[in-house]
Specification:
The complex is a heterodimer. By secondary structure, chain A is α+β, with helices and mostly antiparallel strands. In chain A, 26% of the residues lie in helices and 36% in strands. In chain A, strand 16 and strand 17 form a beta hairpin. The radius of gyration of chain A is 25 Å and the shape is elongated. Chain B has one domain: MetI-like (MetI-like fold), CATH 1.10.3720. Classes of the chains: A alpha+beta, B mainly alpha.
Chain lengths: 367, 232
């Protein structure tokens, strides 16, 4: 049997987790802890090992190496996994409903646990109501729309009153309006119930909407795990920076430091950044596109920002209601500007502009 | 043309006057093929499920053997079961040759690969992720298998129908191992062969109609189960 630890406040703990597939390491997590009641959102690109991590934590996949604790219990070979899985719930990207009615689908987990019929009905109806699908109860699950099916799958998970809820890209298959609605709904349910949740997703906005902490998983490695403002504001590596939406990530060298501002040489230009980095230090200069303003050359003096770099427009692309502009300032700087400003500037490739951004908007990562 | 019309009318008379020999043949057909189908389900459904859900070295070979077995010529089955049960054969001591038991064995050998192969196809058609979801819902291994089989119930019933169809309609093996002994091992197919060879077309048509009617009844029953909408 597993050993219990008094000091364990974490509901879930992993140590030296390694998962190999066909001799290739797809997941390598030296340490991971999930505290009771928190929501951990793991983001990463496709193929980063997100689902593998989730399946491993949910005891649906045995790691090649490493140790796992659930609620202080070390999960060794002898542990009854079915009993532990019955304290968890998993919602996948596909709703994976059984060919039964909506009601029967929501009740099935309780039925497997031998919950009495009366209690089963009470809990099933409660969660059907809460997910807003009570009027669909008698419908065959195969006749549901994508949103309705995913709500059924979520109701089925919540009805189990799990101690930990695993969500594997549960919103990815939904159309945009449904998705926003379901995310908000699930966020409220998680806050209300206080269920510990681990979410994996490739979508930054989902992670920001739900996560108390955000982890960035790239190439099987958890590169950073911290509060959202830390991960998005001060990414720990250029890979994380790129994944959290910092589109300008370029190498440079600190050439001077004074009064909390480092002067960094990037290509043939100098960028000022609010950071404690000293001369000689090799760094990555990170800049969010929404922090960059574009000005015409003769209006450059109007900006109070410390960084004003003249350059040539390389590319102009619409991005939703905004416009993404790449400017060659000796190194590429990406700016996200509004359509009116783009029109005022009359941006076309080859045109000369000034990219302006505050020293506080620049984030430096040591190389 | 007269032959057919006359045959059908005489067949109907035979059927509705309750010809004792005819009913004995019908009863034995049902008993032998029903038992063979039941046995083939007991072997075929677990085997097909196992082949669909597990991976092991040599699995492909087993699967291709099963698929080949689905088209096993009854004559070949009859030959080998006969040799097996022959007085001086390996199982000759059991004295089963020319008994209904021998026919059950032969039909079971024919039906089992059909049931196995169709079960395998039915279970493999399920979304592989469904297994993970069912385990994640807290199912034991047995509960998972039960839910998966319930999920595949339509194609599984097709496997049952095909298995019974294969057993009840085969003739070569039944003649070889049963011998078409009246009152003992004469079934619908073997009787039809005999009556036809004697030029006794009315009886042959009557037997064929019964065979068709039997298949219709069994399949109608299974179809009703298969296509039933489950209430809440």
């Amino acid at each position: 049997m597993g050993e219990a630890r008094d000091s364990d406040k974490a509901i879930l703990r992993a140590e030296g987790l390694i998962v190999q597939r066909a001799g290739r390491t797809v997941l390598d997590i030296p340490a991971l802890e999930v505290a009771r009641g928190e929501v951990v959102a793991i983001i990463g690109p496709n193929g980063a090992g997100k689902s593998t991590l989730l399946l491993t934590l949910a005891l649906l996949l045995s790691p090649t190496e490493g140790r796992l604790w659930f609620d202080g219990l070390w999960i060794d070979r002898q542990v009854d996994r079915v009993a532990l899985r019955r304290r968890m719930a998993v919602v996948f990207q596909e709703p994976l409903l059984l060919d039964l009615s909506v009601y029967e689908n929501v009740a099935v987990g309780l039925q497997l646990r031998g919950v009495s019929a009366a209690e089963r009905a009470r809990r099933t109806w409660y969660w059907l109501e809460r997910l807003g699908i009570a009027e669909l109860a008698r419908r065959p699950a195969r006749d549901l729309s994508g949103g309705e099916a995913q709500r059924t799958s979520l109701a089925r998970a919540f009805a189990l009153a799990p101690e930990i809820l695993f969500l594997d890209e549960p919103f990815a298959g939904l159309d945009a309006p449904t998705r926003a609605e379901v995310i908000e709904h699930v966020g409220a349910l998680i806050r209300d119930t206080g269920i510990t949740t681990v979410l994996v997703t490739h979508d930054r906005d989902e992670a920001l909407a739900l996560g108390d902490r955000i982890g960035v998983l790239i190439g099987g490695h958890l590169l950073q795990l911290d509060r959202p403002e830390v991960v998005f504001g001060t990414p720990a590596s250029p890979e994380v920076a790129a994944f959290v939406g910092i589109e300008t990530v370029v190498p440079g060298h600190v050439i001077a430091y004074r009064d909390g501002v480092a002067r960094v040489q990037v290509a043939q230009r100098v960028v000022e950044a609010v950071a404690e980095m000293y001369p000689g230090r090799a760094v990555w200069v990170c800049l969010r596109p929404e922090d960059v303003t574009l000005l015409s050359e003769d209006a450059a003096g109007e900006s109070s920002a410390r960084n004003r770099l003249a350059g040539r427009v390389v590319r102009v692309r619409p991005a939703g209601t905004q416009v993404r502009v790449t400017v060659d300032c000796g190194f590429p700087v990406v700016a996200l500007i509004t359509q009116p400003s783009a029109q005022r500037l009359g941006l076309t490739p080859g045109q000369r502009v000034v990219a302006s951004f505050k020293a506080s908007a620049v984030h430096l990562i040591g190389r | 043309m007269d032959l057919i019309v006359e045959g059908i009318s005489r067949a109907l008379v035979l059927l509705f006057t309750g010809d004792a020999e005819l009913w004995r043949v019908i009863g034995l057909s049902l008993l032998v093929s029903g038992t063979a189908t039941l046995l083939s389900l007991l072997v075929g459904i677990p085997t097909g499920t196992f082949l669909a859900l597990t991976d092991f070295p040599g699995r492909r070979i087993v699967v291709s053997l099963v698929n080949t077995g689905m088209g096993l010529p009854p004559i070949v089955v009859g030959l080998f079961v006969t040799i097996l049960l022959w007085r001086s054969g390996p199982l000759g001591g059991l004295r089963l040759l020319y008994t209904p038991a021998a026919m059950v064995i032969a039909q079971c050998v024919i039906a089992t690969p059909i049931v196995t192969g169709l079960t395998l196809a039915a279970m493999q058609a399920l979304n592989p992720k469904l297994r993970l979801q069912i385990l994640a819902l807290g199912a034991t291994r047995l509960q998972m298998l039960w839910l998966l089989m319930r999920e595949a119930r339509l194609p599984l019933l097709a496997a049952v129908m095909a298995g019974f169809g294969g057993a009840v309609s085969e003739v070569g093996a039944s003649i070889m191992v049963g011998g078409n002994i009246p009152g003992q091992t004469r079934v619908l197919t073997t009787a039809t062969v005999m009556e036809t060879s004697r030029g006794n077309f009315a009886m042959a048509i009557a037997l064929s109609l019964v065979l068709l009617w039997l298949m219709l009844c069994v399949n109608a029953f299974l179809t009703v189960i298969q296509q039933r909408r489950r209430p809440l």
